[in-house]
Design brief:
Elements lengths: L1 H14 L8 H38 L2 H48 L4 H7 L7 H43 L2 E3 L2 E3 L4 H21 L2 H24 L1 H6 L3 H53 L5 H18 L1 H4 L1 H27 L7 E5 L4 E10 L5 E5 L2 E4 L4 E4 L6 H9 L5 E8 L4 E4 L8 E2 H6 L9 H10 L12 E2 L1 H4 L2 H15 L3 E5 L7 H14 L4 E5 L11 E8 L2 E8 L6
Protein name: Putative ATP-binding cassette transporter
Membrane topology: Multi-pass membrane protein
InterPro entries: AAA+_ATPase, ABC1_TM_dom, ABC1_TM_sf, ABC_transporter-like_ATP-bd, ABC_transporter-like_CS, ABC_transporter_sub-D, P-loop_NTPase
Length: about 575
């Protein structure tokens, strides 16, 4: 019961926001329509149950007129049943897509808000494969929640409706054993209840491991798919290193987990199916066994027997709802657990950005420099990495940051960008200042070359002529005629060409502060110097801060800052300041 209450509480937390959202009117109307149609279908089933009595009595009595009339009534009821079923499916699918659309937008917004997606990666494996959770799990959650919810409602209403009928039929066809009638009030209802409780208990005992198995299967499938994508994205490196055999081994191991878990699901499903199938088949004949003595004792007619069997079947199915949907319920609980974990991981990532101790990035009105005050940048588990106090990045000054590998130079840039919360102290940035970070390997979204260059702005934000001029300026005139070509540019271009495109992006956006994290390391020294001179010429008001290891970079900057060992961390120290501008 605790597990049920916990699961329902999680489902309510995930599902309820949609029905309180800006789309709540459409969602509530569609849900109400689906429920109303389901209740109408139950009502038609009640009418069909009564029809069974009249129809089979007409057959027994060979009453042609009643037989023809009942055929006509059946056609009318069947027409309404078919029409309602069709529109219930249509409205259900309409509600599904609106609900899924809202949840997808919400999860995308929260996942991509303020670098949450990045901090979630730093947390480890708390929410693996967010792509699967947003695409597959949201779809399954909406589909299965509606299906199970409407099915449960139908079972409850069916039970309430047919219990009354079955109780009355118990009096009309008393329990008969060896020709002796026993007046047991509602014995058919008690028989259906005992049968359902027995089936439910055994189903839970046999099928309970399917919940965890289904959860693991989704995780293993997503992990296998993710690693396939990684091989595709890094196919050049794999080919250069002749890593096909290693990748095949790694992928085989991950797929082996899929197969192994699937065999476990197969074994458990075989047992569950063997029981549920036996249970369902026995349920067909069980009511006839109960009422057959009364029928052959001439206490009820054929119509009463058929109505009793139909009512018993409806009550038994309603009581056995858990048995019939157990496999779907196990999969649904796994989906709920994955979405719940995803939401908690997002919430944790949001908290990391603000909870103490954390690095505070604040806006400083009237300031013309970035100030690092009592800053301590740490690793996610708390190990100190970089410290700086009273350090400033001055406007219109080109600064070079150097230090040994692993000293935390890139992590310091991430902290300044506001995506690395681990640590303490504060970073004051001039109000409304625009920062841009260029890593060693720039990111280019799939699409046209123009859209890739101007990212994250829209392609229409800059004219094609402006983008062509910038391409020529950074030394890529051969790409000027390919702006509208769609391609995977991170794979199509060399790393040097990608770094030139990164500089082109900076020239277009013209930030107040430009941070270059070895953003020209793949270029030769002459090309690197030419791009730095281009930045100074085209962006004279931009403050450039670079990370690099080449000695030639020192001549291209006015200030050299080094990260040197200071106890258990590295500290920023000025090596050379206020030299002549190169």
């Amino acid at each position: 019961m605790n597990n049920i209450r916990s699961t329902l509480a999680i489902v309510w937390r995930i599902a309820a926001p949609y029905f309180r959202s800006e789309d709540k009117l459409a969602g509530r109307v569609l849900l109400a329509a689906v429920i109303a149609i389901e209740l109408s279908l139950v009502g038609i089933n009640v009418l069909l149950n009564e029809w069974n009595n009249r129809f089979y009595n007409a057959l027994q009595e060979k009453n042609w007129e009643v037989f023809v009339r009942q055929i006509g009534i059946f056609c009318i009821l069947a027409t309404f049943y078919i029409a309602l079923s069709v529109y219930q499916l249509y409205l259900n699918q309409w509600l599904q897509i609106r609900w899924r659309q809202w949840m997808t937008r919400r999860y995308l917004g929260e996942w991509l808000h303020d670098a949450n997606h990045y901090r979630m990666q730093l947390q480890g494996d708390a929410a693996d494969n967010p792509d699967q959770r947003i695409s597959d799990d949201v779809k399954l959650f909406v589909d299965q929640t509606l299906g199970l919810g409407v099915g449960l409602l139908s079972s409850v209403v069916t039970l309430a409706s047919f219990v009354v009928i079955l109780w009355g039929l118990s009096a009309e066809s008393p329990l008969t054993i060896s020709g002796h009638a026993f007046a047991i009030p509602g014995y058919l209802v008690w028989g259906a209840l005992i049968y359902a409780v027995f089936g439910t208990a055994l189903t839970q005992w046999i099928g309970s491991p399917l919940v965890n198995l289904s959860f693991e299967q989704q995780r293993f499938e997503a992990d296998f798919r993710f690693n396939l994508v990684r091989v595709r994205e890094n196919s050049e490196q794999v080919a250069l290193l002749r890593g096909e055999s290693a990748e095949r081994q790694r992928l085989s191991e991950r797929f082996g987990r899929v197969v192994e878990n699937w065999y476990a699901i197969m074994s458990r499903t075989k047992r569950l199916t063997a029981f549920t199938s036996s249970y369902s088949q026995a349920a067909v004949i069980f009511p006839y066994i109960l009422v057959a003595p009364a029928y052959f004792g001439n206490k009820i007619q054929l119509g009463g027997m058929m109505q009793t069997a139909s009512a018993f079947s409806s009550v038994q199915q309603a009581l056995s709802f858990f048995v019939s949907i157990y496999r779907s319920l196990a999969e649904w609980r796994a989906v709920v657990a994955r979405l719940s974990g995803f939401e908690m991981s997002i919430a944790s990532a949001m908290t990391q950005a603000t909870q103490a101790p954390s690095i505070g990035v604040v806006s400083s009105a009237g300031s013309d420099k970035i100030d690092l005050n009592k800053l301590l940048v740490s690793l996610p588990h708390g190990t100190p990495l970089v410290s700086a106090d009273g350090f400033s990045i001055r406007t219109n000054e080109r600064t070079l940051v150097t230090g040994p590998s692993g000293a935390g130079k890139s992590t310091l840039f991430r902290a300044i960008a506001g995506i690395w919360p681990f640590g303490s102290g504060s970073i004051a940035i001039p109000a409304r200042a625009k920062l841009m970070m260029l890593p060693q390997r720039p990111y280019f979204p799939l699409g046209s070359l123009k859209a890739a260059i101007v990212y994250p702005a829209e392609a229409s934000a800059f004219s094609s002529d402006r983008v062509r001029d910038v391409l020529i300026a950074v030394g890529l005139p051969q790409l000027a005629s390919r702006l509208e070509e769609d391609a995977h540019w991170n794979r199509m271009l060399s790393l040097g060409e990608q770094q030139r495109l990164g500089i082109a992006r900076a020239l277009l956006h013209a930030p107040q502060y430009l941070f270059l994290d070895e953003a020209t390391a793949s270029l030769d020294e002459a090309s690197e110097a030419a791009l730095y001179h281009l930045l100074r010429e085209k962006l004279p008001a931009t403050t450039v801060v670079s990370i690099g290891h080449r000695s030639t970079l020192a001549a291209l900057h006015q200030r050299n800052v080094v990260l040197s060992r200071d106890g258990d961390r590295f500290a920023l120290q000025n090596r050379r300041e206020d030299v002549k501008q190169p």
